[in-house]
Amino acid sequence: MKMLIVEDEAAIRQQLADYFSALNFVIETAADGEDGSYYATEYDYDFAVIDIGLPKVDGIEIIRRLRAAGKKYPVLILTARGHWQDKVKGLEAGADDYLVKPFHSEELRARANALIRRSGGSATPQLTFGSIVIDTSTKQVTVGGSFIELTSYEYNTLEYLALHPGQPISKTELTEHLYHQDFERDSNVIEVFVGRLRKKLDPENNLKPITTVRGQGYRFALEAG
Predict the structure, then answer these.
(1) Distance of alpha carbon 204 from alpha carbon 107, whole angstroms
(2) What domains does the chain contain, in order, with CATH numbers?
(3) In the beta sheet, which residues pair with residue 50?
């Protein structure tokens, strides 16, 4: 998942970047509202954490701008301000949730996962597609009740496709949202991961969970339920 962090306190910004990087998020950061506004409006993310009290441009204005630009990804406000008026302003500007400093990283992670799931149309951690169940909380996958061993790269690829069911996802989009800048962008590793997933999820080739869309990429073809 690709995440934007806009936070002017260097220690907190680095703490968040390190924590979510260890959870296989692709991280982009900004230290002030001007840079944060640029990233937030110009690029797409799966999730953003935006502080309110920022130099140059405040967080509320960043949220207004990104929503005006048509960006629909979930946004969580991170703020030292505990007044309810500030929370209301943030939510009315287009934020989806808020967290007051100081905070626990585990709570932020839980809120992030919940917002990402809901943006993909799921209210629970379990994404169920017939006999395939993907638990986005534990990062485990079962097929017919049996656990399937996946590498982190394989799981990330599967989760992203499953959170966008029915949509063609290009290899470029998968790479940008799931893997860090030093990932081999010109290689065919995405094809390798998809090939492995097909064999592990559907060894008999009966379910066909991931289909190839010629010229567009891959699509998770199963329906939820």
Answers:
(1) 40
(2) 2-119 (3.40.50.2300), 126-220 (1.10.10.10)
(3) 6, 77
Return all residues near 70 (Cβ < 8 A) that are at least 6 apart: none
pLDDT at 182 over 60: no
Spatial separation of the C-alpha atoms in residues 163 and 222, rounded to whole Å: 11
- Distance, C-alpha 138 to centroid of its chain: 15
pLDDT digits (tens, 9 = 90+) for 10-41: 999 999 999 999 988 999 999 999 999 999 99
Look at residues 38, 22, 41 and name the one whose alpha carbon lies nearest to residue 30.
Answer: 38
Query: What is the token pair recorded at 213?
Result: 């869309």
Q: How far apart are CA 86 and CA 38, in angstroms?
A: 23
pTM of the predicted model as reported, rounded to 2 decimal places: 0.81
**pLDDT per position as a tens digit, 71-114:** 999 999 988 866 778 788 889 999 999 999 889 999 999 999 99
